[in-house]
Amino acid sequence: MKLVKVVGSLLLAAGLVGCTPPMPPEVKAALADKYVTCVDGPLTISSQPEFEELLNIWSESYTTNCANSKLQITEYGNTSDIVISGASEATPFCSSSLKIPVGLDGVVVATPLEGVENIVLSPEVLNKVLLGEISNWQDADITDLNPDIEFPDLPMQVIQSGSKTEVEALNLWMATETGGTWQPITAAAEQNLEELATDGSIGIASLAYAQNNSLSLAEFLLPSSDQSLYAESAGVDSGGTQMVLTNTGDDYVAEIDPTIEPTASEGTDEAAIPWHGIAQTTVSICKGQNELAAKAFAKYILRLDSQGELVGVGRNATPENIRIELLGIVSAGLPEPSVPPSGEPEPALPTEMPTEEPAVDATDAATPEPTS
Q1: 117 alpha-carbon distance from chain centroid
Q2: Share of the chain above pLDDT 90, in %
Q3: DSSP of 128-194, one letter per residue?
Q4: Are 135 and 94 found together in one domain?
Q5: Is residue 239 part of a domain?
Q6: Model confidence over 77-98: pLDDT tens digits?
Q7: How far is it, in rounded angstroms, from Cα 323 to Cα 307?
Q8: What are phi and psi of 37, to 5 degrees?
Q9: When you count CB atoms within 10 A of the terminal residue's CB, does the N or C end of the chain come out lower?
Q10: H or E element: which one contains 325?
Q11: How many distinct structural domains can be found in the chain?
Q12: pLDDT band at 321 (very low <50, low <70, confident <90, very high)
């Protein structure tokens, strides 16, 4: 069923807000997870190719709940109401009124070398490799770190495979670990991910891509530890619990604060060792007449079930504390379902939108997402 609020009702509700105490963020998040906020009318969305699968899943689910949304997916680079991209990617075709992180992914170094796994690299050696200063897998810098591995006499092919977002995330992490001695890597204009299948190649990639394509990954021997660190989803989640939300105007980003103690994932007793190479997936809401509809879709992406789709494709969900904060930010201007008084049942609600309501009006879906 859907609780439909016409414009007059929305204005009346807004006038009564001052009579009630502010709703705690956790309550707002719980309501967002239970109820779907819809905005009717046109909505155009585009995404970078690596996020197309997620966009298709989210779009199909959203339109199932919001039947009056005229959602269309357009090619990345075209004018749209929402753009899904990596946090550092330039989107000159979208002048954003709001940009928020909606998901995470690990940044890794893939090392597809036949018969060789678990290659250990220090930040110093990794920097030399990515700068092209090491050209053979039998280089002493490599073999000294891996005395138990017999490397082939094979040229090392550095692949320009990392996105700008992934490269900048790795630069930030390694600069922090080395106290600023890391020389920044520059991302190429185009990613050549397919070339990472070449024996003897090495390159930056997302953890999701590496796992989905069964690529071997380098372990990192960081100055702060005497044991090498291996990339895994649990480590990215652990690093996510150290994140805080910061902003420059309406551009929000999650930043890692290493002084924050990481917390264990649900169902585990101990936090995994944090992996701080983290790329962020963002949603940019483009300025225009459909901003309210775009915010409703962004709010939908932040629901727990939508975040679960990130995990389903090998990525990581938004840290819970940041998700709750972002729900409050993106909900500004959108209607919020009312909470029945304690002990009282939720009222019966109409199932159809009144035909006289303009197509662009906002509505609340006042029941959980359909199960079929």
Answers
A1: 28
A2: 78
A3: HHHTT---BTT-HHHHHH-TT----S-B-EEE----HHHHHHHHHHHHHHTTT-PPPPPPPSS--GG
A4: no
A5: no
A6: 999 999 999 999 999 999 999 9
A7: 9
A8: -95, 125
A9: C
A10: helix 320-330
A11: 2
A12: very high
245 within a domain of the structure (yes/no): no
Cβ-count burial 76-104 (b if 16+ within 10 Å, e if not): beeebbbbbbbbbbebeebebebbbbbbb
- Pair 180, 287 in one domain: no
Query: Residue 190 belongs to what domain range?
Result: 106-234
Q: Which two tokens stand for residue 106?
A: 């690990």
Tracing tokens 């963020």 back to the chain, one arrives at 25
For residue 84, being part of any structural domain is answered with: yes
CATH number at residue 332: 3.40.190.10
pLDDT tens per residue, range 1-49: 333 333 333 334 444 444 556 778 888 888 888 999 999 999 999 999 9
**Roughly how many angstroms between the first and final C-alpha of the chain, as a whole number?**
14
Do 303 and 321 lie in one domain? The reply is yes
The answer to whether 71 and 296 have CB atoms below 8 angstroms apart is no
* Residue 120 and residue 138 in one domain: yes
Q: Hey, what amino acid is at 60?
A: E
For residues 62 and 125, membership in a common domain is answered with: no
